[in-house]
């Protein structure tokens, strides 16, 4: 018998787990001391950390299917729904730009110079773009056409990256600075507006957003299938596990030709991470929504219902706190957050464990805030 609730507790759980992990990997006590699974792959390959962003975009897709399902059946509401999606996408993009512009030290801050060198691509920016485009495609296309769109995107991106000669280089390649995506970012955006750690390329660049859209559409199709009322939960689980496993295998096989790579968001990466996300959601759905084993879910649901809010605030808070300076015995001044880390974590653990302990503290700190919001039913929707 199909479950009546349209809101999946397992989806909130999955979203919260993903965002909590994102905060964990983004807030180490020291970037010089990180356990290998909590670091991104150097280039090709995939660590657990490399699963976080595609999992979130997959969840965005599933959420679109649930939030806009009723509106899809009413063509008269499409324009209004698309405008709302556009507004939300622009807000997300704007929040991402705000984080890029926001200074780490107001004393040296120059707004005009910051605008000249602001990083235009970014995580929130990509989420905004993927959300809007996937929303439009979901409203205007059938499931079969969405599936075809995914296939076309993955094949077209593979062909562009593997066979189109890069201007100024003369041949197609997948190297950091000379691939087609890096050339396109430098040509359109300019080096001043790319990721400061690389300058010549950006992991959330223009061209790689195309396969990121396919990741979102992957989630849309899974969401549409989960919502079906004519399929028993057991059959849903079986199909989702099967599809997930086949996509993981397909991604690994394609990796031999088109390497799994997060920064390039390769087609093999889309299949591999999309398959794993499908398996995780199917397992969560079976345990949490079908069998009602949900006591362990509360901490992650608390994170899940205010996911974008906590991600944004977690990026802003360290900068604000480190603007409060504390004078050291030698006369130097350090940020209050740095002081807190050096006082309560660094002296009591090995460097790598101190770094991890600090990251866990950050998760617990935000959990307390989110728990209060959850209890008061405060949900900030972007």
From TrEMBL:
TM spans (from-to): 12-31, 51-68, 89-106, 118-139, 146-166, 205-225, 237-254, 269-288, 300-321, 355-374
Domain of life: Bacteria
Domain Heparan-alpha-glucosaminide N-acetyltransferase catalytic: 7-162
Keyword list, A-Z: Membrane, Transmembrane, Transmembrane helix
UniProt-listed PANTHER family: LD22376P
Protein's name according to its UniProt entry: DUF5009 domain-containing protein
Gene source species: Pedobacter planticolens
């Amino acid at each position: 018998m199909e479950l009546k609730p349209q809101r999946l507790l397992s989806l909130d759980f999955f979203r919260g787990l993903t965002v909590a992990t994102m905060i964990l990997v983004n807030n180490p006590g020291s970037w010089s001391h990180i356990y290998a699974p909590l670091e991104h792959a150097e280039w090709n390959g995939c660590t657990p950390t490399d699963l976080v962003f595609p999992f979130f975009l997959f969840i965005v897709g599933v959420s679109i299917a649930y939030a806009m399902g009723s509106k899809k059946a009413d063509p008269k509401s499409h324009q209004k729904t698309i405008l709302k999606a556009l507004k939300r996408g622009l807000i997300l993009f704007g929040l991402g730009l705000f984080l890029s512009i926001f200074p780490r030290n107001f004393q040296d801050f120059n707004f005009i110079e910051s605008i000249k060198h602001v990083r235009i691509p970014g995580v929130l920016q990509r989420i905004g773009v993927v959300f809007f485009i996937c929303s439009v495609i979901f409203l205007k296309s059938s499931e079969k056409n969405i599936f075809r769109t995914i296939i076309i995107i993955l094949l077209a991106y593979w062909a562009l990256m593997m066979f189109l000669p890069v201007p100024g280089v003369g041949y197609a390649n997948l190297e950091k600075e000379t691939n087609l995506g890096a050339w396109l970012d430098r040509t359109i955006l300019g080096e001043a507006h790319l990721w400061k750690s690389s300058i010549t390329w950006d992991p959330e660049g223009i061209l790689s957003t195309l396969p990121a859209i396919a990741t979102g559409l992957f989630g849309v199709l899974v969401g549409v299938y989960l919502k079906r009322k004519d399929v028993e939960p057991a059959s849903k689980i079986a199909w989702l596990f099967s599809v997930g496993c086949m996509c993981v295998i397909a991604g690994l096989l394609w990796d031999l030709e088109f390497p799994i790579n997060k920064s390039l968001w390769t087609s093999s990466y889309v299949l591999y991470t999309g398959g794993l996300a499908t398996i995780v959601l199917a397992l969560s759905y079976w345990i949490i929504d079908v069998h009602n084993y949900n006591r362990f879910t509360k901490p992650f649901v608390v994170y899940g219902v205010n996911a974008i809010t906590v991600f944004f605030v977690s990026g802003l808070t360290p900068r604000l706190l480190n603007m409060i300076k504390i004078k050291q015995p030698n006369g130097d001044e350090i940020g209050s957050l740095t002081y807190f880390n050096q006082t309560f974590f660094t002296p009591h653990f090995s460097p790598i464990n101190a770094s991890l302990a600090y990251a866990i503290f950050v998760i617990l700190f935000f959990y307390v805030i989110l728990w209060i919001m959850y209890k008061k039913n405060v949900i900030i929707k972007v």
